[in-house]
Design a protein that fits this description.
- The structure is a single chain.
- The protein has 724 residues and is α/β, with parallel strands linked by helices.
- Helix content is 28%, strand content 20%.
- The chain contains 19 helices and 25 strands.
- The strands form six sheets. The chain has a six-stranded mixed sheet. A six-stranded mixed sheet has the order 10-15-14-13-11-12, with helices on both faces. A four-stranded mixed sheet has the order 8-7-5-16, with no helix packed on it.
- Helix 5 runs parallel beside helix 6 and helix 13 crosses helix 17.
- The longest helix has 19 residues.
- The relative contact order is 0.12.
- Bound molecules: beta-D-glucopyranose.
- The site of beta-D-glucopyranose has 7 residues, from loops.
């Protein structure tokens, strides 16, 4: 929670109180799996083969079949992951009958991860779950937790982090928040959908170690700690087999090792073969393009019936899939006793604001921020993203929202009475547009007249919100061409900084841009992501110091694209047939730290308007791992929050390990002058790595360094311990 003036606190507390209350009225004794399976098996016994198979595939764009004769309803789904998607009707046509489907547009996944606050993950999930429930949805298609491997992935804005530990902590909160509202979360996209280029074709090849250490842990935590009820298989192939029909990933790991009890659905159109899907763990087929044919022509439709009739497939395999679908229905109380949801409430928007306040990251500040209204007569707002509505863009994650406060709105709301605020676009979000000298000239003139400039640019969801791939940047189905700012923004920012050095650069988007053309000259830089319905208000509060920023980068911002590991060591996006992850486990800071390459802004970096001191670090090590204690003090003049980050380094290892790895963190809120001792537990897994010579996790007894600090490049205290 970032510190803001007391006035915002009651709103958040109310939000939590509401969630708790709604839960209390409907809380019922949790049923054991055994009890559920007895009821489920009794239902399955009543079904004909045709009825069972009808449940294994879609019967409209976002529902799968029910059995009305037996009182089994359809299962209804919606995207996800940062708001309940607008209705698209049963046949994919935007449903204009539902003009009342305007949801809360939460800051996107990457902004949530930047809060480093799992309690907010829960609050965020609870909003989604409650809204999905109120809209009659059973499954919300989120969270999206694919690892941010390259800055170019068009869907990074929906995802969370380059670091599996951070992903795990945020995903578990999110999932519990959703599912406590009697709605199933659906963690996606399982697995290695780390690029959009050729996502429906490409075969991902990675080592077992990269799989175990980097790409699986988020999914494992979602299942084993979050108890997620649904998982969505990815479009791509993994080691030669489609992910959704992948025996190793689905049967052996997800359902075997992780003991996942819920349903594995396909991404929309990710099933390719009836038998592979039947054998290899697909429970529900969604979104296959039938080109006008009936839904029972899906791979898991009529063909299954004839295979069973011919004796080529055992009906028990079908029963097992139905059992999993019914399990999810029972767990969300589909057959009675379901909590009521709530839609687009004040409290939900308050949570959206809170997440934005804590997720926006102050990257650089040479004494320009916070702004003081009394010192400013004229404020020039420049840049098309200051007025751009982002909620409906990006692809399947689009949200029709009741309202979206832009940065310009937010500044006017907060300081409009005291400060003369002007706006000039500076650039136009127009297909193939380069530098527009006229727009630059008038922006420069506005900058000269102003005491302070706030520039808002970066990525957008593309030229046309509804055309995902047309000149799109942060969008499904496409990756960014490079890290260079589009629409002539580099030239614009340089010109504005020259005209008025008191310029704050606010970047929006799902990830980094190459800032090398102007970052040295910019006194203040903020990463705002896509901050949701209340984003403009949150940004204005941060600019004026009403809120003290506390967001930390969940991914490394490289200076140049070529310096990021997927591009320097690995392949991106591959040759359209295969992509080899030869960057292996060296994703994000694991690479920058180990190769000693200085990024533009490091993983975990994020400034505050106050300062924090670290002292008295103690580590006690035992058989179960170690406990780290450290005292954190607010040594500045305003209240603020610090994310204490704990990294582990193995001093000598058999196989090469990253320089250090995040294994714990905690966000602490401190008044000026206040100190607090925080404790972070590290279990045995915190010290292990996957040794692919031995094909198992190993803990090598010996010396480990525990590093404690404010960012991956700002370690304040270290201690060496022996772990046996
Ligand atoms: C996306 C999924 C989404 C699904 C349904 C697919 O294209 O990859 O993330 O949930 O569509 O809209």
């Amino acid at each position: 929670m970032s510190y803001r003036c007391r006035k915002a606190m009651p709103a958040l507390l109310l939000a939590f109180a509401f969630i708790m209350d709604a839960g209390a009225a409907y809380s019922q004794p949790a049923q054991t799996d055994d009890t559920l399976y007895r009821q489920i098996n009794a239902r399955i016994k009543q079904m004909t083969l045709e009825e069972k198979v009808g449940m294994l595939h879609a019967n409209s764009s976002f529902t799968s079949g029910g059995i009305s004769r037996l009182g089994i309803p359809e299962l209804t789904m919606s995207d996800g992951p940062h708001g309940v998607r607008m209705e698209h009707g049963r046949d994919w046509r935007t449903d204009n009958d539902h003009v009342d489907d305007s949801a809360t547009y939460l800051p996107t996944g990457v902004c949530l991860a930047s809060t480093w606050n799992p309690a907010l993950g829960y609050a965020y999930g609870a909003v989604l779950g409650s809204e999905a429930n109120a809209r009659g949805k059973d499954v919300i298609l989120g969270p999206g937790i694919n690892i941010i491997r390259s800055p170019l992935n068009g869907r990074n804005f929906e995802y969370q982090s380059e670091d599996p530990y951070l992903v795990s902590r945020m995903a578990v909160g999110y999932i519990k928040g959703v599912q406590d509202q009697d709605v199933s979360a659906c963690v996606k996209h399982f697995l290695a959908n780390n690029q959009e280029t050729e996502r429906g074709r490409v075969n991902v090849i990675m080592s077992e170690r990269a799989l175990r250490e980097i790409y699986l842990p988020g999914f494992k935590a979602a299942v084993t700690e979050g108890g997620v009820y649904s998982v969505m298989g990815a479009y791509n192939k993994f080691r030669g087999e489609w992910c959704t029909e992948n025996r190793y990933l689905v049967n052996d790991i997800l359902k075997g090792e992780f003991k996942f009890k819920g349903l594995l659905m396909s991404d929309w159109g990710a099933v390719h073969n009836t038998q592979e899907a039947l054998w290899n763990g697909t429970d529900l087929e969604m979104g296959t393009d039938l080109m006008g044919r009936a839904y029972d022509k899906f791979f898991l439709g009529d063909t299954v019936i004839s295979l069973v009739r011919k004796g080529m497939i055992d009906e028990k395999l079908v029963d097992e899939k139905v059992r999993r679908i019914l399990y999810v229905m029972y767990r969300i109380h589909k057959f009675g006793g379901r909590k009521p949801g709530a839609f687009s409430t004040k409290d939900h928007f308050a949570t959206a604001r809170k997440v934005a306040e804590e997720g926006i990251v102050l990257l650089k500040n040479d004494h320009l921020l916070p702004l003081k209204a009394s010192d400013i007569k004229k404020l020039a707002v420049i840049g098309a993203n200051a007025v751009r509505l982002q909620s409906e863009g990006g692809g399947s994650s689009q949200v029709r929202t009741r309202y979206e406060i832009t940065l310009l709105d937010g500044l006017k709301n907060l300081a409009g009475n005291a400060v003369d605020i002007s706006y000039s676009p500076g650039y136009a979000i127009v297909k193939n547009a380069g530098i527009d000298q006229e727009l630059i000239d008038s922006a420069v003139a506005a900058a000269r007249r102003a005491d302070v400039v706030v520039f808002a640019g970066g990525w957008t969801h593309g030229y046309n919100n509804y055309s995902w791939t047309d000149n799109a940047f942060d969008a499904e189905g496409t990756d960014k061409p490079d890290m260079t700012l589009p629409f002539g923004q580099d030239q614009l920012i340089a010109a504005v900084l020259k005209a008025n050095p008191r310029t704050v650069v606010v970047m929006m988007g799902g990830g980094p841009v190459d800032m090398t053309a102007w970052v040295e000259k910019a006194p203040a830089v903020i990463q705002a992501w896509y901050p949701g319905s209340e984003g403009g208000n949150a940004l204005a509060e941060i600019l004026f110091g009403v809120v003290n920023p506390s967001g930390k980068l969940p991914m490394t911002f490289p200076r140049r694209l070529a310096e990021s590991p997927a591009h320097a060591l690995g392949q991106f996006p591959g040759d359209s047939v295969n992509v080899h992850y030869t960057d292996d486990i060296f994703v994000g800071y694991r690479y920058f730290d180990t190769w000693k390459i200085r990024p533009q802004f490091a993983f975990g970096h994020g400034l505050s308007y106050t300062t924090f001191g670290y002292s008295d670090m103690q580590v006690t090590a035992g058989k179960q791992g170690a406990t780290v204690g450290v005292t954190v003090s607010n040594t500045g003049r305003v209240a603020g929050a610090e994310v204490v980050q704990v990294y582990v380094k193995e001093n000598v290892s058999e196989l090469r390990r990253p320089e250090k790895e995040l294994k714990g963190f905690v966000k602490v809120f401190l008044r000026p002058g206040e100190s607090r001792k925080v404790t972070i537990s590290l279990n045995r897994q915190s010290f292990e790595y996957y040794n692919d010579l031995k094909n198992r996790w190993v803990l090598e007894p010996g010396a480990f360094t525990i590093l404690c600090g404010s960012a991956s490049d700002d370690i304040r205290i270290t201690k060496v311990v022996r772990i046996n």
